[in-house]
Amino acid sequence: MNEVRVLTPVGMLGAGFPPETLTRGLELGADVIAVDGGSTDSGPYYLGAGIAKTAAAAVAQDLRLLLRAAADAGIPLIIGSCGTSGTDSGVDWVAGITRGILAEEGLDLKVATIYSEQRAADLGARLDRIHPLPPASPLDAATLDSCRHIVGMMGHEPIVAALEAGADVVLAGRATDTAIAAAFPLMKGMSAGPVWHAAKIVECGGQCTTNPRAGGVLATIDAAGFTIEPLDADNACTPTSVAAHMLYETVDPFTMREPAGTIDVSEAVYQALDPRRVRVEKSRFVPADQHTIKLEGARITGYETMSFTAIRDPHILGQLDTWAALMRKMIGEWVSRTLGLDGDDYAFDLRLYGYDAILDGIEPDRRPPREVGVMLLVRAADQETATAIAKVANPLMLHLPTPDMNYLPSLAFATSPAETERGAVYEFALHHVVDVDSPTSMFRINLPEDGDA
Predict the structure, then answer these.
(1) Residues pairing with 304 in the sheet
(2) Are 62 and 10 a contacting pair, CB within 8 Å?
(3) In this structure, are 385 and 405 located in the same domain?
(4) Which residues contact 305 (CB under 8 A, 6 or more apart)?
(5) 20 to 30 A Cα–Cα from 119, which one of 18, 274, 379, 389?
(6) 157-164 vs 177-187: helix axis angle to the nearest 10?
(7) What would the pLDDT profile of 435-447 be if each residue is shown by its tens digit?
(8) 40 conformational bin, left if phi > 0, alpha if psi -120 to 50, beta if neither
(9) % of the chain at pLDDT higher than 90
(10) Would residue 63 count as lying in a domain?
(11) 186 and 86 in one domain?
């Protein structure tokens, strides 16, 4: 093939997109549909709990359109990081929805699943080949064992293996966002530099356009570069909007590491072909001396209870730092006196929304706000203790005055009951890569058999 057209109608499966933009992509000659199904953007909970952040109905709505389009056009559909975090349960969840739709629609498509979840014992046996990424520390078996789920982030190779085996639909576990879009054009022999750069630009659908809400994009990749255009006729790609996406989720705006090597766009040239389309050339891909797979793992750090109240008393709002400092002091004293717990037994966070909850100490505007929401997050080793602490703090969250007030103010709880048990709280425990001899060895590929759909 002299060129390959990659259609990315949406940045994440389940986010929704205008159906007419998908039709437009097919009319432009798309050779493959590639969609990301997950992310770590929403924190470690979804990996730790092994559940998706997206609603099944939303995923099914997108999948129905995508499967129909793939069947009508006779082109592959690739979805990576299924179920948000790419766990085995996430792949099976999306696969179940897919097979249900295929049966309902009477579509004959062969589905391959790729599993990326890793066993702690297997990784523990190869600690000498696992390396920390800054600022992580060297990995030990105890850290691996503490993780509820561990996934390896695959490159394009397992996806290519599934496509070469005859899959019409590939549902992959955790994968790099770029690998999802890069797999098919690399399989067709396109130059690695343009392929990987184009894959990075289209990973989030319309985010590289001037109106990200209008739908996705189509990238046409050839030997010298790629051209990118939006699927909505009233939307546009500009050199700035396209180049800016290399700043998204990267440490360096000119380079980005993949399992097989590094994308280098330091000499890339962005040129507007017309008001809607951008041509990019001189992108490079530098193969790595060692193929590596990044590991992601999440573990429970405790159980959390939340309470939320609101302040509109102008006297308190005029000296909010003083009030918050008193609140923190009083919670510690009351919990110690009432429950006999010290600071090592629990932790709590007081966030002042509308004042400095986002920027904290670097908030430049310290003028008194009109109203403030106060979120108390209590974490303890078990749910019962976390809730007990939040209940002890309840009177303070309702009536705490500043030291100079001669009356008790009444603040406004947002919910009844005032305490909401949030359950287990997770943290990412792995920021490491493992050296591998084969780019597919850590992944289990379930290929379609003849007659399977």
Answers:
(1) 379, 423
(2) yes
(3) yes
(4) 377, 378, 383, 386, 387, 389, 390, 419, 420, 421, 422
(5) 379
(6) 50
(7) 999 999 999 999 8
(8) alpha
(9) 95
(10) yes
(11) yes
% of the chain with per-residue pLDDT over 70: 99
Q: How many whole angstroms separate alpha carbon 129 and alpha carbon 126?
A: 6
Same domain, 168 and 257: yes
Question: Which domain, by its residues, includes 15?
Answer: 3-116+154-288
- Domain end, chosen from 288, 310, 340, is at 288
> Are 306 and 283 members of one domain?
no
Residue 142 domain flag: no
Give the pLDDT confidence score for residue 367 in this predicted structure: 87
Nearest CA to 73 out of 5, 157, 170, 131 is that of 5
**What does the block give as tokens for 259?**
């399992």
State pTM to two decimals.
Answer: 0.94
Q: Which residue has the tokens 């879009």?
A: 181
The pLDDT tens digits of the residues spanning 354-378 come to 999 999 889 998 889 999 999 999 9
Q: Of 288, 317, 345, which marks where a domain is finished? A: 288
The tens digit of pLDDT for each residue in 54-92 reads 999 999 999 999 999 999 999 999 999 999 999 999 999
Dihedral pair phi/psi, residue 148, rounded to 5°: -75, -40
Q: Determine the average pLDDT of the residues in 183-202.
A: 98
The token pair at 374 is 């106060």
Residues 317 and 363 reside in one and the same domain: yes
pLDDT tens per residue across span 219-240: 999 999 999 999 999 999 999 9
Q: Are residues 266 and 370 in the same domain?
A: no
pLDDT the model gives residue 13: 98
- Supply 55's token pair: 């609603």
Domain membership flag for residue 121: no
238 and 314 housed in the same domain: no
Report residue 395 as tokens.
């009177």
Residue 34, domain member (yes or no): yes
Over 50: is that where the pLDDT of 451 sits? Answer: no
Q: Please list the residues that pair with 255 across neighbouring strands.
A: 264
Q: What is the pLDDT of residue 361?
A: 86
